[in-house]
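yo

u said u wanted the structure for the complex thing, so here. seqs first:
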Amino acid sequence: MTVATPSYSAKRRSLRQQDARIAWLFIAPSLVVILGITLWPIIYTFLLSFFVAPTGINQVRTFVGLGNYLTLIRDPTFWETIGRTLHFTIVSVGLEMVLGLAVAQLIHAHPPGWRVLRFSLIIPWAVPTIVNGAMWRWIYNGDFGALNGLLLQLGLIRHYIPWLTLPSLAMDLVILADVWHMMPFVALILQAALAALPVELEEAAAVDGANALQRFWSIRLPLLRPAILVALIVRTVDAFRVFDIAYIITNGGPAFRTVTITYLTYFNTFAWGKQGLGAALSFLISLFSIGMAIIFIRWLYRPEEIA
Amino acid sequence: MRPRRKTLRKMGLFLLTLPVFAFIYFPILWLVSASLSTQVELFAVPPHWIPQHPTLANYLEILFPSLAVSSVPRAFGIALMNSVKIASAVTLICIVVGGLAAYALVRIPFRAGPVILIGVLGTRMIPEVSLILPLFIVASSLRLINRPEVLVLTYMSFALPFAIWMMAAFFQTIPIELEDAARIDGCSRLGILRRIVMPLAVPGLVATAMFTFLLAWDEFFYALIFTSTLAAKTAPVAISEFVGRYTVNITGMMAGGVLAALPPVLLALIFQRYIVRGMTAGAVKG
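structre next:
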């Protein structure tokens, strides 16, 4: 035994070195792809945000330092766009979380047909974003749409309303379409988390005389916190960079009322020929997302919270 | 007394599910109904909720381009095929390339491993819009615009990190004792991966493949910027181009929408067991 030990540990060490080499070999293709199409472009975009860069082959780029960022800060359009993006993010994510939790609870109570309901939730979530947008655009259609037809037949309106031309309502209509698409995402995550909770705690609390609201507030909600956080952070990051659904339902209209920060970046970069400004905007979106990512990762590495 | 109260409660809860069902299915039924309508019937006021003269013509025109009377359904059929090709290629590459990386990151102990894993998760937080301009400049100079290859490559920016994270979580559930035993018996890393890990990880790989396919199928922004011709245009771009023009055949677009929604919806329903795991991939560590 004692004779075998040194040769064993020597073999182990060489195995470990061999392991590291194999690990790098396995990771290399992914690393090359990620460095090439993510890391390099984000650095390029960051550097470009310090230049005035008009679109075109032979256009000269001029270094302006923080000029683009200052231009943005002084531009009322920028702040209006931030406001609209926050409107979309807060209302859509808020509704998705509240309704998602409610639907998850409903399924968890196992009423007749709960399996069908859980199954049905998958459909809106799986419908591609653009199909979802096209569908709602047609629902909101002022001349032939289903929303007008339904409200008229229910006697709630007297005349057809051109919904998507109403500036004060356009963003909320986009939000409704997003809620249809993404509320199921939250509901499915929270329902799975509910199903994994221990029932003993709530039963014990019930025996001790806690009412349903107290049990929900003091036991179920705290236990759901990790799942709620995951859904909340994933949804917030995605909602803040929303583009597709606004592009397809309203094209940013009416009168810019549904232009979000990603949309404004798209305009600057690909329509208005202000690539430096676009780069500065997109870097601000990254900054917000990375801020959320830090929260994400810090939460992730508190293992005591992962049920 | 008690069972009766319980029945009442169940009935009350059941009634609560009805508005949820209505909210989910009303838009879908309207979409399907429009796709089965004739153009004339679609413009009825008030709307015909169920078409009085249902027709499959809108679907047939897309699926059999020779039957199409206008270029819209023909273009849509091609775009759908582009989507199938691009999403499949992205999925295949992500599973092979990402699978190797995921295995190494969770199962081979080496110093940089955890840092790289966190870095991979971090890339998921970078929005497409921050990457697109440099990628566009390079793609133009390499004459890759309007080529399917450029979408396969750029889709990796979100699909590959996602696939690595999801597979890493699955690999961690495979008991390490099995691998240790195989190593003691003199099996190489590649041999372990092929003979022991792969067979056990099949459900995880299938679930990851489904999710990656869905992500690639759903993508719109890169496709909008990088493609303008039928050589590489995907289904979402085709829908976006026609949806605004009423004069163009809206019923055909609705049929196109249903066809574009069918593959992801069917995949998700078949693999529903894995959906929550995929949704929280990167959030649940193994």
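Chain A has two domains: 4-39, 76-305. The longest strand of chain A covers residues 51-52.
cya
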